[in-house]
């Protein structure tokens, strides 16, 4: 999926575990098929997951998660994966990597959710809890957080480039109108808040039809709360969006920026992943469609 991606096979994965976590060396291991874009994931035994970055982008994620997730987890209403171990570069593998607990359940695709409004309430409470975390010194928004938490305007040139690259694959004029509508919203001037930054179905776990866990904190940062509010379009169906908005108490400006964030993430991702990760490309196409069908920008 990435030009600078490296091959991670079971021999490498098992060798790293054997060297750095010998107590788990004899556990069964199998590669997990995933629409994820950043890590090779192996299930290790019955209750662990091995996460190995595939390219330089998430190279520091294991270190950041090891520092912050044990402190965030007790403050949040959904389970998050407190790392069980953090590996270091070795055997020709160049990045830090991690062992996480394995959460029972499935990726929380819409068809696996029994009640979308309940999911909106659960997810809204998670976003509010993140926003209310009082832990100073959190990650600064920037390249390591894929820009999450930075002003929306910084994405302008990249979004316009993506619209041009997509050509007839999307409705370019409505997409540009929706983007400019978001750019016109007042920027965030309040204090930086804690953000997950990537609350889409691949990073949410459901069990028996209800959200139970949030994983993959690779875009963890402190910044504009709109970056988590964007899950209203990134994940939720139309009928659940107002429930979510009421829970997070998003004002008009934050709501508009959040819509722009969702659109920008999807537009930028689609030309990059449309041939290398078709399943993920289908997810972001749905996000674009949700935004363009939103009555507030479709007028």
Summarize the structure in words.
- The protein is an alpha+beta fold and 299 residues long.
- The protein has two domains: 10-101, Phosphorylase Kinase, domain 1, CATH 3.30.200.20; 106-298, Aminoglycoside phosphotransferase (APH), C-terminal lobe (Aminoglycoside 3'-phosphotransferase, Chain: A, domain 2), CATH 3.90.1200.10.
- Helix content is 41%, strand content 13%.
- The protein is built from eleven helices and ten strands.
- The protein has helices at 10-20, 61-72, 116-131, 156-166, 172-183, 226-229, 231-234, 238-248, 252-273, 278-293, 295-298; strands at 29-31, 39-44, 48-53, 85-87, 97-101, 106-107, 193-195, 204-207, 210-214, 221-223.
- It has a five-stranded antiparallel beta sheet, sandwiched between helices.
- Helix 3 runs parallel beside helix 8 and helix 4 (156-166) crosses helix 9.
- The protein is globular and about 55 Å long.
Considering the chains and any ligands shown, give keywords for the structure:
2 domains, 299 residues, 5-stranded antiparallel sheet, Aminoglycoside 3'-phosphotransferase, Chain: A, domain 2, 3-stranded antiparallel sheet, Phosphorylase Kinase, domain 1
SSE arrangement, N to C = HEEEHEEEHHHEEEEHHHHHH
CATH topology assignment of the largest domain: Aminoglycoside 3'-phosphotransferase, Chain: A, domain 2
Roughly how much helix do the residues carry, as a percent range?
40-55%
Name the average pLDDT.
94
The largest β sheet comes out as: 5 strands, antiparallel
> What is the CATH top level name of the largest domain?
Alpha Beta
| Number of DSSP helical runs | 11
Distance between the termini: 37 Å
* Percent strand: 5-15%
Please indicate the count of domains: 2
Give the radius of gyration: 19 Å
Unreliable segments of 5+ consecutive residues: none
Provide the CATH architecture of the largest domain.
Alpha-Beta Complex
Question: Which sequence of strands runs across the widest sheet?
Answer: 1-2-3-5-4
Number of strands: 10
CATH H-level name of the largest domain... which superfamily? Aminoglycoside phosphotransferase (APH), C-terminal lobe
- Overall 3D form: globular
Oligomer: single chain
User: What class would the helix/strand composition place it in?
Assistant: alpha+beta
